[in-house]
């Protein structure tokens, strides 16, 4: 997992030599609170963005997840949430892998590491990074965010 702030270039400058990361971060600099909800393709199915909003929830109501094909670059536009992180080897699957959604859920476990996603913050989750988004920070009830989905073959 990589965590940083968009307005702190040293938190992600080492990624920008890769054209896929450069495309993603350049696009993040165009995001505003007026960015429309939905999916935007940046490079076909290999790099696309899903802009969304939702109510955050108590941690017990959220689930850890991983992906096999895509790396997630999650970015908070407004509001806030907590995202819990664990290495996927620490978890037991909860159901089978959904190939169509590139999604594996896991059985609940206590939180060991938590990232506070405030406006301007990003977190990058690779396939080994189990992450549990949507967790309430108890101060913000909603988050407006996006997830850049990047094909692992482009960024590994």
From TrEMBL:
SUPFAM superfamilies: Clavaminate synthase-like (SSF51197). InterPro entries: NanQ/TabA/YiaL, NanQ/TabA/YiaL_sf. Coiled coil: none annotated. One of its GO terms (cellular component) is cytosol. This is Toxin-antitoxin biofilm protein TabA. It comes from Lacunisphaera limnophila.
